[in-house]
Amino acid sequence: MWRRYLMWFAHEHVDFRHAEMHSILSMYNIPIKFIEQPCINKPYWIVELPTEDHVKKIASRSVLVKNCIELWSHAKSQIKLHENLKKAIKNSERTWIVPHDSDDNGNHLSHICPSELIKACSSSDKSFKVEVETFCKHFSMQEKVDKIETFSYLPLEGPVKLKNPDIILSYFEFYGVDPNNVPEKPYDVFFGRWIVDGQRDLIQRHSLKRRQFIGNTSMDAQLSILMANQAQVVPGDVMLDPFVGSGSLLVAAGHFGAHVWGSDIDFMMLHARTRPTRVGQKERTKQESIRGNMRQYGIENRYLDVMVSDFSLPMWRDDVKFDAIVTDPPYGVREPTEKIGIDKENYTLTEEHRVNHVPSKVEYGLPHLYSDLLDFAAEHLEVGRRLVCWYPLVRDEYDEKHLPRHPRLQLVANSEQVISRWTARRLLTYQKLKVQDSSATTDPLAIAPNFREKYFSVGETTRKERKEKRAADMLANAEWRARATNDQT
């Protein structure tokens, strides 16, 4: 019998929820049935899965899942929840009883679980406790105790143990997602046995505040883990970040068991010689490095190396393959988009200057950068494996058909992170297809124009508009004061 579960999510990075979950489900080949269709305005899924081990596998990877419980009852009110539970105690069938009544959305109003779920927790040698959680509302400790006491009819014979009990029973109340419009009664209530927590603790453990080596654009810990999940990184994989920077993505992939490579054109960053990012720090310490970050988290043995290289110039052998390519290319705003080159025509370098010559750089336009990135992934990814990268854009101009495309790569996930009122970046996940034509490439002209130019043009237009509006407001205010003065005289 498949078991029914409540998967409770953190209500942040909501647009990434489906992408992360479906990546994990397909990575472990886990079948799933939805009892209610997922809704972006609800921080939970009600699903059925074959076994409890499948739930634990999902939770072992997900950074957006807060916890999972084996669902015993779900209702729209506390009274109905208790009615369902009392009926469940007498339900000798090995399946859920689902009545025919439903709400306007087609969701069943009553869920009565088989009694065997409750009996499995009722023996006298199993200690237990009941926890109360709410979403969008706060309860005092006394209110929580009062709600816990309403479950006294459950046939639990074991002792109550508040610290490290054998069984944790969870009661949830959902009051919507608008903190400015909290209803008096909850929209949904749930009760069941706690199974497992997600990987939320990794956010603090991998926090940039605690990391030895960071840069101006180091990727947030939670987003780094999300990217590793969408890349379906598993132990033994070989992962590459071709725009590695300070190596945040290597840390996330290494945490999940991948062996990691990195490359970047910025010599100073890879050697930890750039200006310190932290406030008050005057110079880098000797311990700061990408390898030092890996050592900090106990995964130095998964660190292969990082190399100074220009991504626009081929460096890898044709037969080199990677299991994942996870990267955050520079956008030309906080970090420059550069490649080796020179604007001068017919430039030559004398032999005596070659030894100490430092190559000059020119702009590496985003259309060509993403074209090269997709071509590289199509050539060097294993079939069926994934490229995960960020793509910046102006929100008002977003059109999915303008996203980078490649005939040998399928776009399987596309999630938005809002940066400002006008700009955003989208996390794109591509999966390599088994296509015979290995010579197919990406056309740079098919990719949207340079984001940097748009970013600053939008900003300049906005500042100009603000100044004009401020001047118009001041003029209108002055005219109003003048009329008021004339009326008084």
UniProtKB/TrEMBL annotation:
<feature type="domain" description="tRNA (guanine(10)-N(2))-methyltransferase TRMT11 N-terminal">
    <location>
        <begin position="124"/>
        <end position="200"/>
    </location>
</feature>
<keyword id="KW-0820">tRNA-binding</keyword>
<dbReference type="Pfam" id="PF25904">
    <property type="entry name" value="Tmrp11_N"/>
</dbReference>
<comment type="function">
    <text>Catalytic subunit of the TRMT11-TRM112 methyltransferase complex, that specifically mediates the S-adenosyl-L-methionine-dependent N(2)-methylation of guanosine nucleotide at position 10 (m2G10) in tRNAs. This is one of the major tRNA (guanine-N(2))-methyltransferases.</text>
</comment>
<dbReference type="Pfam" id="PF01170">
    <property type="entry name" value="UPF0020"/>
</dbReference>
<dbReference type="InterPro" id="IPR016691">
    <property type="entry name" value="TRMT11"/>
</dbReference>
<keyword id="KW-0819">tRNA processing</keyword>
<dbReference type="InterPro" id="IPR002052">
    <property type="entry name" value="DNA_methylase_N6_adenine_CS"/>
</dbReference>
<comment type="similarity">
    <text>Belongs to the class I-like SAM-binding methyltransferase superfamily. TRM11 methyltransferase family.</text>
</comment>
<keyword id="KW-0949">S-adenosyl-L-methionine</keyword>
<keyword id="KW-0963">Cytoplasm</keyword>
<feature type="domain" description="tRNA (guanine(10)-N(2))-methyltransferase TRMT11 N-terminal">
    <location>
        <begin position="4"/>
        <end position="91"/>
    </location>
</feature>
<dbReference type="InterPro" id="IPR059073">
    <property type="entry name" value="TRMT11_N"/>
</dbReference>
<comment type="subunit">
    <text>Part of the heterodimeric TRMT11-TRM112 methyltransferase complex; this complex forms an active tRNA methyltransferase, where TRMT112 acts as an activator of the catalytic subunit TRMT11.</text>
</comment>
<feature type="domain" description="Ribosomal RNA large subunit methyltransferase K/L-like methyltransferase">
    <location>
        <begin position="210"/>
        <end position="338"/>
    </location>
</feature>
<dbReference type="InterPro" id="IPR000241">
    <property type="entry name" value="RlmKL-like_Mtase"/>
</dbReference>
<keyword id="KW-0489">Methyltransferase</keyword>
<protein>
    <recommendedName>
        <fullName>tRNA (guanine(10)-N(2))-methyltransferase TRMT11</fullName>
        <ecNumber>2.1.1.214</ecNumber>
    </recommendedName>
</protein>
<keyword id="KW-0694">RNA-binding</keyword>
<dbReference type="InterPro" id="IPR029063">
    <property type="entry name" value="SAM-dependent_MTases_sf"/>
</dbReference>
<keyword id="KW-0808">Transferase</keyword>
